[in-house]
Amino acid sequence: MPRASQQRRIIVAPNEQVMAETAAERLIARIAQAQGEAAICLTGGSSPQPLYRLLAREPYRSRLRLDRTHWFVGDDRFVPETDPLSNIGMVQRLFLDPVGAPAANIHAMATDCGSPDAAARLYEAELKRFCGRGKIDPARPLFALVLMGLGSDGHTASLFPHAPALTERERWVVGVDEAGLEPFVPRVTLTFPVLASTGEMLFLVNGQDKREILSRVLAGDDLPASRARSDGELVWLIEAAAAPADPHVS
Ligand code: 6PG
After folding, report:
1. What's the whole-model pTM score?
2. What is the pLDDT along the chain (250 residues), one digit of tens a residue?
3. CA of 210, closest atom in ligand 1
4. Residue partners of 215: CB distance under 8 A and separation at least 6
5. Distance 149 CA to ligand 1 centre (A)
6. Residues 154, 221: contact at Cβ < 8 Å?
C-alpha cells in the first residue's frame, strides 16, 4: 500500500508551451537556490521534450549556471547512448549538447556494461561519490530537483506496477530486466527513497491520453506514481488536456 499521502501542489498549464516555461522557471529557481553545486535529475519519455528544447535556447540557456550544475537521469533504457531509445541520448541531443554542458557534469548510466544490475551498481556508486555519503539524509537532499513522468500504466521512472523495485529501500539504483510497458527493453532506475531525496519533485504530465491514469493517481489508487514522495516539495505540473475534471481530488 502507498504510504500516507504527502501535501502536493497541482499546477494546470493551458498548453505545452506554458507548461515548458513553468517547468523551466522552476528548474532555474532550484539551481539558483542551491548552495554550491546543484544536482538535477532528468527524466525520459516524450513529456519533458518541450522543456528540454526550451532550456536549450535563450533566455533560459544562460541562466542554467552550467559550471556548477550536474545532470543525472532517474532511469534509462539498457541500450547504448546512440540508440534512439536512450534517455540520456535524447537529453543530450535536445538539451545538454546544444547548451554546452561540461562533459564532467553529465552523469549517464553505464548502459553499455554487462547487465542492468551492474549498471545500477555503478550508478549507485557514482551518486554516493557525488554526494559524499552512503546514506540518504532527509535534511540534506541529494538533488535540487527531480523531474518525473507518468506512464499510461501508472509507472514512473522505470518503476512499473507490481515490480519488486517499488518497495526497495536499501538499493539506490536497481536493474529492471523486464519493462512493464513499451519499449520492452531492460531498464535501470533510481528507487523511490533516492528519487525522494530532492528539494522538489516535479511531475510533468501532458496529453489527453494521460487524463484517466492521472485521475487515478491523484485519487490515490495503488499505482507506482502514487507512491512517489519528496523530502522537499511535490509538484504536479499538468497540461490542461491531461487534467481530470477536478485535479484537486485526493
Ligand atoms: C522512460 C521514462 C518513463 C516516462 C513515462 C512517460 O524511460 O520511459 O523515464 O518513466 O517518464 O513512461 O513517458 P511519456 O512522457 O513518453 O509519456
Report:
1. 0.96
2. 445 568 999 999 999 999 999 999 999 999 999 989 999 999 999 999 999 999 999 999 999 999 999 999 999 999 999 999 999 999 999 999 999 999 999 999 999 999 999 999 999 999 999 999 999 999 999 999 999 999 999 999 999 999 999 999 999 999 999 998 899 999 999 999 999 999 999 999 999 999 999 999 999 999 999 999 999 999 999 999 999 987 664 3
3. 17
4. 244, 247, 249
5. 5
6. yes
